[in-house]
Amino acid sequence: MSDNYLDEDGEEQFYAIRPNKTEIKRDIAVILKMAEAMTTLSLPQLKEFDLPDNVFKAIAMMTKMPHKAARKREMKYVAAQFRKIELEPIQEKLARLQSSSVHAVREHHQAEQWRDKLISGDNSILTQFLTQYPSADSQQLRQLQRNAKKELAAEKPPKTARALYKYIKVLLQMG
Q1: Cβ-defined contacts of 24-29 (< 8 Å, 24+)
Q2: Element (H or E) spanning 22, and its range?
Q3: Cα–Cα distance between 151 and 157 in angstroms, integer?
């Protein structure tokens, strides 16, 4: 008779356990945060989530709305719709997208730094780069470096510097 109680007639009575309000509020906050994060995605990225049509349209509409009352109402609607569907696959895909974008930004900055060092630096920086990335084609890298330096000196558009950046970025992605 631990969780069950007997009434006056000796029959057991069962009591419904009400969900914890704080827990419900935490769940809603997680859903709202997820919905807000989804409004920062592009439409092609959003289409990858295979959301129900009404939720997809609502999120797409929210991306264009200012942060005012109408957006808050729409956010509440999206949160209510999210409670009707399974969120785990959506959360996993969103986390993967966010972590890959963080990684891409870091890679972008590394490529820019290497490009700037190679254009402004001497051959010791080129040697350092080739040591760190042995799969790089040293002849192509030297040519891109030399031509980018010439462009910079002649104050021409940085066409070769862009090509050098792209080559470095490919090398960074390879490992």
Answers
A1: 28/79
A2: helix 21-38
A3: 7
Residue showing tokens 């996993």: 92
pTM over 0.90: no
Compute and round to an integer the Cα radius of gyration of the chain.
Answer: 28
Determine which helix (DSSP H) or strand (DSSP E) holds 46, and give its type and residue range: helix 43-47
Q: Sign (positive/negative) of CA torsion 159, 162, 166, 172?
A: positive
Contact residues for 26 (Cβ-Cβ < 8 A; gap 6+): none
DSSP 133-166: -TTS-HHHHHHHHHHHHHHHHTT---HHHHHHHH
Category of 155 on φ-ψ map: left (φ > 0), alpha (ψ -120 to 50) or beta = left
Q: In sequence order, what are the residues at sequence separation of 6 or more whose Cβ sits closer than 8 angstroms to the Cβ of residue 55? A: 78, 81, 82, 85
At residue 124, what are phi and psi to the nearest 5 degrees? -65, -35
Q: What is the pLDDT of residues 8-60, one digit of tens each?
A: 776 776 666 778 889 888 988 988 898 888 888 888 888 888 888 998 999 88
